[in-house]
Automatic annotation (TrEMBL):
<dbReference type="InterPro" id="IPR026935">
    <property type="entry name" value="BtrH_N"/>
</dbReference>
<feature type="domain" description="Butirosin biosynthesis protein H N-terminal">
    <location>
        <begin position="2"/>
        <end position="121"/>
    </location>
</feature>
<protein>
    <submittedName>
        <fullName>DUF4872 domain-containing protein</fullName>
    </submittedName>
</protein>
<feature type="domain" description="DUF4872">
    <location>
        <begin position="134"/>
        <end position="303"/>
    </location>
</feature>
<dbReference type="Pfam" id="PF14399">
    <property type="entry name" value="BtrH_N"/>
</dbReference>
<dbReference type="Pfam" id="PF16169">
    <property type="entry name" value="DUF4872"/>
</dbReference>
<dbReference type="InterPro" id="IPR032369">
    <property type="entry name" value="DUF4872"/>
</dbReference>
Length: 308
């Protein structure tokens, strides 16, 4: 939304890929209560990556002061510039799923005495509003993935470089990070680890009928574009094949098509396991995650060999 206001029209999939956004993390800690499988890089890392790739001027403001935080946003809105906000979606009144997630990002384009006017995902209604009180709570939240009242604006150069010149370094950087993670719960190693751990998910909660379907929902529908962001990356690679003739690129596109379909199956198996209480569905999910680790590793190995 911020780029569109600057006259830059690129698909969400292209922005995701140019920001080297795809990743995987199996996050499990006492503070979480239940494992979190994530499919992308850290919330603001994608934005910074994309700004570097597209040579955008990215102005980021953070503060511990709620008053200063509001002044930062209001000044941009009053000047006619939409603002990106990172916040905890739990406090947004229009949000249909009440789950704490401090890495949520929205675009804000207006306000009045009572409400803030935002653009969120299609699932949450697109153009929406929430009270200024709830917005302040969402921005002030502390916990995993949260930021200190982070707001940001972007300014695009008068002329963007050709996409063909930018896609190769974005893809190879993403592939290298995925193939060589520093710890075992990231990248292809993280998917393999998730495959081993998912078998015990019914034992990890006292309320599997609620928690497992919620985990599946986060993987498939909660702003991921489907299949834990794999649909988005598949579509990005598909767009890239129209710009660059490459066997490695076509291989990566084909394999991420397979991976995307399999991630949707995994989410369905986890959902069914929670609703039925039958661990056999988690055994099947475990096997599929093992396949996914191999498929995605093969895709990223091919993409890492990509040359301009």
């Amino acid at each position: 939304m911020l780029l569109r206001d600057e006259g830059v029209e690129l698909s969400e999939a292209m922005l995701f890929g140019l920001g080297s956004g795809l990743s995987f993390i199996y996050w499990d800690s006492k503070g979480l209560g239940f494992p979190f499988p994530g499919g992308r890089v850290k919330p603001f890392e994608l934005t910074r990556n994309l700004a570097g790739t597209l040579e955008l001027e990215l102005l980021v403001q953070e503060t511990t002061s709620p008053k200063r935080a509001w002044e930062n946003v209001a000044a941009s809105i009053d000047a006619g510039r939409p603002v990106g906000l990172q916040l905890d979606s739990y406090y947004l009144e229009y949000f249909s799923s009440k789950v704490h997630f401090g890495g949520h990002v929205v675009a804000m384009y207006g306000y009045d005495d009572h409400n803030a006017y935002l653009v969120d995902t299609d699932q949450q209604g697109g153009a929406v509003s929430t009270t200024l009180i709830s917005l302040a709570e969402a921005r002030a939240a502390r916990g995993p993935m949260t930021a200190k009242h982070r707001s940001f604006t972007v300014t695009a150069p008068r002329r963007l470089r050709s996409l063909a010149a930018q896609i190769v370094p974005a893809i190879t950087a993403c592939a290298d990070a995925f193939l060589h993670p520093p710890i075992a719960n990231l990248g292809h190693r993280g998917i393999a680890k998730a495959g081993k751990q998912v078998r015990r998910w019914l034992e990890r909660t006292d309320d599997p009928q609620r928690v497992l379907p919620q985990a599946a929902l986060l993987m498939e529908k909660a702003g991921t574009g489907g299949a834990l962001f794999r649909n988005l990356y598949r579509d990005f690679l598909g767009e890239c094949t129209q710009l660059l003739d490459s066997t490695e690129l076509r291989t990566g596109h084909r394999l991420y098509g397979e991976a995307a379909a399999l991630w949707t199956e995994v989410a369905g198996l986890i959902d069914t396991a929670g609703k039925s209480g039958d661990a056999q569905y988690l055994v099947k999910a475990s096997s599929s995650l093992g396949d996914l680790a191999r498929i995605e590793c093969g895709a990223m190995q091919a993409l890492s060999r990509l040359r301009a």
